[in-house]
From TrEMBL:
Keywords: Aminoacyl-tRNA synthetase, ATP-binding, Cytoplasm, Ligase, Nucleotide-binding, Protein biosynthesis. One of its GO terms (biological process) is arginyl-tRNA aminoacylation. Residues 4-87 form the Arginyl tRNA synthetase N-terminal domain. Its EC number is 6.1.1.19. GO terms for cellular component: cytoplasm. It is an enzyme of class 6 (ligase). Residues 451-563 form the DALR anticodon binding domain. A motif ('HIGH' region) lies at residues 124-134. It comes from Candidatus Campbellbacteria bacterium CG10_big_fil_rev_8_21_14_0_10_35_52. It catalyses: tRNA(Arg) + L-arginine + ATP = L-arginyl-tRNA(Arg) + AMP + diphosphate. This is Arginine--tRNA ligase. The gene is argS. It holds the Pfam family DALR_1. The keyword Protein biosynthesis applies. It is found in: Cytoplasm.
Length: 563
């Protein structure tokens, strides 16, 4: 990367002046007039050595210029001692050539080569609805998976689902009651399972008799001792999982591993019992981890009825993952409300499986809300992920009612999913999001449809050029460098930063700025024309199309050819 060339040039210049530093900070000036890169190294070293900042900056610049680096056109000293670098016309031309040559690999890296990473995300529970919280986890997890994969790592996607536990017992309790009432649709639709769960939740909270019955069902689910319950359980589980797969297909997600609480539960209980007296302790018939001893809160790992809790199961999950896939890094993505919970899990893991705890990273995300407020699975009023996609799709189709596209339905769904994903990924993962329909569906900036439309516009330009037999060529590059060129070369470093920090929003912000630069270029220039400049303008359009498409792919968003 050009950033590395500049850093090495600065480092060498400093060494030649008998100075040294481990921290060379480079940034892009907010105004292109101040160059392509800027460093405050002279100010930093002047503070350390007591020398005059501008004199030191001048010496560093002279040493750099002595090297006659072909990628650098000029170096200037700005107010306060900043050193600004202006890249050469040749650099920008060669960068366009590199983009065209690299194609779908443009922006990828190998700095994570040979690293095996398993990423767990989405985690919907059978017998419950796939709600907008799962949509958020899936969007962030899929994007991070693609970014890390694009950086050279081998990535395995994992999905961990609660197919046993009180929530299942609550749903089955209600399903049994439905059977007694003569309902015939109990095991045909996933929505019925969600409604049954909501009914079971209310009964568990309000009716002591129902609560006792649900607890008994829960035990029978674990020990598989009741044939009728087993049948309801197996059928309900199958319906839920099949429904989830339909949603994953819409979201362009495919998991490599599926883990279930029914398999982690027995091992979790065993680990808690085996380590009682060392890591865990008994309390009122339960097995607990006394987190207060290490500044955390205390949690139950096996309850007083002898059943493993979420905590025990999550501990076992780490071990089962490592046996299924020999990873160097395990990333777990959950809602931020589980942040403190996961600190306890990692602390317990550290004491039992220290090597696995070192490899595990927890990433938390905020909540996704609609202007109408927060969803509630307790009342049965759940905003499902699919209902949100369908609502956005309906609004998109309304905007497209005069379109002559043959595959309007398919494109509308791609735009709808893109709009939702962009809204989730445009800010750092830890923040809550209120989904704004108007802004999210806008074709005029800061939205998924805006990026997709810019990509489709570039496709249209390239198609017109193809029909007129104008081929892309970099030989006749323009003398002046335009904003679009000054952004295109940054893509690989944006990807690296997103990978290093597990933050897709860097790619979202960059892609939006890039789309704006292309739209300005499109408005100012006649791209497809009979002139000697046309081949380079086509090359520039093609380079933009490759970059925006790769950026959208990293966000998990499709780039329709026509809109």
């Amino acid at each position: 990367m050009i950033r590395d060339i500049l850093k090495n040039a600065i480092k060498e210049a400093i060494l030649n002046l008998s100075l040294e530093t481990d921290d060379i900070h480079l940034e892009h000036p907010s105004d292109f007039a101040y160059g392509d890169y800027s460093t405050n190294i002279a100010m930093s070293l002047a503070k350390q050595t007591g020398r005059n900042t501008k004199d030191l900056a001048r010496e560093i610049v002279n040493k750099i210029l002595e090297k006659k680096i072909k990628e650098i056109e000029k170096v200037e000293i700005a107010g306060g001692g900043f050193i600004n670098f202006y890249l050469s016309r040749e650099f920008f031309t060669q960068n366009i050539k590199e983009i065209l040559k690299s194609g779908e690999k443009w922006g990828s890296g190998n700095f994570l080569k040979n690293q095996k990473t398993i990423i767990e995300y989405t985690d919907p529970n059978p017998f419950k609805e796939f709600h907008i919280g799962h949509l958020m986890s899936n969007t962030i997890g899929e994007s991070i998976s693609r970014i890390i994969e694009f950086s050279g790592a081998e990535v395995k996607r994992a999905n961990y689902q609660g197919d046993v536990g009180l929530h299942v017992a609550k749903a089955i309790w209600a399903l049994q009651r439905s059977q007694h009432r003569g309902s015939t649709s109990v095991l045909t639709r996933s929505e019925v399972l969600g409604n049954a769960y909501a009914e079971g939740v209310l009964a568990y909270e309000r009716d002591e008799k129902a609560k006792k019955e649900i607890k008994e069902i829960n035990k029978k689910i674990y020990d598989k001792s009741d044939d009728k319950i087993n049948l309801l359980y197996e059928n309900g589980r199958k319906i839920s999982l099949e429904r989830f797969e339909e949603i994953y297909k819409k979201l362009e997600t495919k998991f490599d591993y599926y883990f279930f609480e029914s398999e982690t539960g027995p091992l979790g209980k065993e680990l808690a019992e085996k380590n009682t007296g060392k890591v865990f302790e008994k309390s009122d018939g339960a097995i607990i981890f006394r987190g207060k001893k290490v500044g955390l809160h205390t949690r139950v790992f096996v309850n007083s009825e002898g059943l493993p809790t979420y905590e025990a199961k999550d501990l076992a999950l780490a071990k089962i993952k490592s046996e299924r896939y020999d990873y160097e890094k395990s990333i777990v993505i959950t809602a931020s409300e589980q942040k403190e919970y996961y600190k306890v899990i990692l602390e317990a893991m550290k004491q039992i499986y220290p090597e696995l705890a070192k490899k595990t990273k927890h990433i938390s995300h905020g909540m996704l809300r609609l202007p109408s407020g927060k969803m509630s699975s307790r009342s049965g009023v759940v905003i499902t992920g699919e209902s949100l996609i369908n609502e956005v799709k309906t609004r998109i189709l309304d905007k497209m009612k005069n379109s002559a596209l043959a595959d309007k339905e398919s494109v509308a769904e791609q735009i709808a999913v893109g709009a939702i994903k962009y809204s989730i990924l445009k800010q750092s993962a830890g923040k809550d999001i209120v989904f704004d329909f108007e802004k999210s569906l806008s074709f005029e900036g800061d939205s998924g449809p805006y990026l997709q439309y810019a990509s489709a516009r570039a496709s249209s330009v390239l198609e017109r050029a193809r029909r007129q037999d104008i081929k892309s060529d970099i030989k006749k590059a323009t003398t002046d460098t335009i904003e679009l060129e000054k952004l295109l070369y940054r893509f690989p470093e944006i990807v690296k930063r997103a990978s290093d920090e597990f933050e897709p929003h860097y790619i979202t912000t960059y892609s939006t700025e890039l789309a704006g630069a292309f739209n300005s270029f499109y408005a100012m220039e006649k791209i497809v024309e009979e002139s000697e400049k046309a081949p380079y303008k086509i090359a520039l359009t093609e380079a933009f199309k490759i970059t925006i498409k790769n950026g959208l792919w990293l966000l998990g968003i499709k780039a329709p050819e026509n809109m």
